[in-house]
Amino acid sequence: MPRKLDARMTLDDLEDEILFTSAGLEVDPDAEDLAPATQGWLPLLDRVRAQDREVRWGAARVDASRAVNNGRLDHAVVAFGDDLFPAVGKDRSSARWRTFFTVPVSQFVKWALGREVAAVKGWLASSKDPVLEKHREPLAKWSTGAGDAVVATRALGPRRGEVWQAREELAEALTRERDGLHAELTKLGQDRKLPRDWPDTFFRVERRHAAPEPPAPATPTE
Q1: S-S: 35 plus which of 25, 72, 132, 167, CB 3.0-4.6 Å?
Q2: How far is 172 from 135, CA to CA, in rounded Å?
Q3: What distance in Å separates the CA atoms of residue 183 and residue 152, rounded to the nearest whole number?
Q4: Please, what's the b/e burial string for 154-182 (b: 16 or more CB within 10 A of its CB; e: otherwise)?
Q5: 3-state DSSP call for residue 3?
Q6: Global pTM exceeds 0.70
Q7: pLDDT tens per residue, the chain (222 residues)?
Q8: How far is 37 from 96, CA to CA, in rounded Å?
Q9: Three-class secondary structure of residue 137 per DSSP
């Protein structure tokens, strides 16, 4: 029997399995009548590959958005802190300073991104400090962009789950199809008195690529 395929195999490995079997059926004159049995396999894989690529592209855009907005927000916060520090007489214990920073600025910008965004938006909503007003536009712009990126990151989890389910369904469908084809080849081989292992020659016995793991829930670290 052909080995069971599973969702941990790469799509390239699954494609190799399909191509190997299809080619074998075409070149063996005793099996060529069964070649049409594999015609629907590649379209099944191509649909999953397109879905996988769409989600990976979306993830790349989200990752890039997080990186850009996080970096620009950090820069805007540092610029605000640099202007605020002399305005409070370089006194980090002053009430005015501590309205915005209860930790050093260098530590503030290392907070988880969602926490940093919430703090900055809190400033903008509650304070009319003249130094803050000078920096309001960049802080508002980049905190909004960063907040949107945090929300988009959370939304990736279900999409990745959908792709994984599609990969599982693909592997199960191909396994069923391959088992059915092997049964037909076995019967054909018996009818034509071919070697007992003849049906096995139409299926690969090893794969090339490392196996991916199921997606973990999205847990942003910033």
Answers
A1: 25
A2: 56
A3: 47
A4: eebeebbeebbebbeebbeebbebbeebb
A5: coil
A6: yes
A7: 899 999 999 999 999 999 999 999 999 999 999 999 999 999 999 999 999 999 999 999 999 999 999 999 999 999 999 999 999 999 999 999 999 999 999 999 999 999 999 999 999 999 999 999 999 999 999 999 999 999 999 999 999 999 999 999 999 999 999 999 999 999 999 999 999 999 999 999 865 555 555 665 555 445
A8: 75
A9: helix
CB 220 within 8 A of CB 153: yes
Amino acid at the residue 11: L
Rounded to an integer, what distance in angstroms lies between the CA atom of residue 155 and that of residue 80? Answer: 31
Residues in the chain, how many?
222
Quote the CA–CA distance of 149 and 67 in Å, as a whole number.
9
Tally the C-alpha atoms within 13 A of residue 20's C-alpha that lie toward its C-beta: 16
Distance of CA 187 to the CA centre of its chain: 43
**Does residue 44 sit in helix, strand or coil?**
helix
Instruction: Please give the structure tokens belonging to residue 99.
Output: 């309205």
